[in-house]
């Protein structure tokens, strides 16, 4: 009888420890360079997320962090950044000795999103939360593709928003960027006779594309203040639907 009670006590203690670990991992203080990293962090199961780049900054990689921003970084358990962000070095320097500093591969292609969310969840200790999010994402993304199905537009796309062409169910006829297209590239794009040009809100080609006779659709890679990646896909799907009529 004593043996049974002892085994039960050990099992209870182990279960309690497991619950404590999960709660602690989900409660990590995460500082994300931009709302894009924040979206990945939220999908992976993080709840306490602070974003450095404020809303309204069109090109996040060029942001210059303030001392108050770096103070937030110093208090973080986890710091997330992308290699292309010019201020990434400052974030890494400001991170406290206890912090995990993690480079995030920012790409909204569905398979890459799911892989990165799963990887971050492994760092956070929130694998179940990420698994739940991924299942919901698969359902939502399939519904968005179905919503856009049958339109068959001819698309040329900026390099970092090609995923939006996939959501519309087509392979882009041409890709430009990340630098603004040259005159020769514009001629090649125009020769494709596109229906839509997918431009990147953070790196807009703008007037450069005016000689290509197609409707310009601005795609935004960044989630809103709610850090909702799925919401970002929905907003861009609505933009595409409106453009397609």
UniProtKB/TrEMBL annotation:
Record carries keyword Signal: yes
The entry's keywords: Metal-binding, Signal, Transport
UniProt-recorded Gene Ontology molecular function terms: metal ion binding
Superkingdom to which the source organism belongs: Bacteria
Any Gene Ontology biological process: metal ion transport
Localization (cell): Cell envelope
GO CC aspect terms: cell envelope
Pfam families: ZnuA
Metal-binding is among the record's keywords: yes
Signal peptide positions (record): 1-20
Main localisation: other
Name of the featured protein: Zinc transport system substrate-binding protein
Species of provenance: Nonomuraea endophytica
């Amino acid at each position: 009888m004593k043996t049974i009670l002892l085994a039960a006590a050990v099992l209870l203690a182990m279960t309690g420890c497991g619950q404590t670990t999960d709660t602690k991992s989900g409660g990590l203080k995460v500082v994300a360079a931009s709302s894009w990293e924040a979206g990945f962090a939220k999908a992976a199961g993080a709840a306490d997320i602070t974003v450095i780049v404020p809303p309204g900054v069109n090109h996040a990689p060029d942001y210059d962090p303030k001392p108050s921003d770096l103070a937030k970084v110093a208090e973080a358990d986890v710091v997330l950044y992308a290699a292309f962000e010019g201020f990434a070095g400052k974030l890494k320097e400001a991170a406290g000795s206890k912090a995990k500093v993690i480079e995030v591969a920012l790409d909204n292609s569905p398979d890459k999103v799911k892989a990165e969310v799963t990887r971050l969840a492994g760092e956070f200790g929130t694998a179940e939360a990420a698994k739940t999010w991924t299942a919901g994402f698969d359902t939502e993304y399939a519904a968005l593709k179905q919503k856009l199905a049958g339109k068959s537009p001819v698309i040329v796309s900026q390099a970092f928003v090609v995923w939006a062409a996939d959501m519309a169910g087509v392979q882009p006829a041409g890709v430009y960027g990340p630098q603004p297209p040259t005159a020769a590239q514009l001629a090649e794009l125009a020769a494709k006779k596109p229906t839509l040009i997918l431009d990147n809100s953070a790196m807009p080609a703008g007037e450069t594309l005016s000689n290509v006779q197609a409707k310009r659709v601005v795609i935004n890679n960044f989630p809103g203040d709610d850090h909702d990646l799925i919401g970002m896909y929905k907003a861009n799907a609505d933009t595409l639907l409106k453009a397609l009529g």
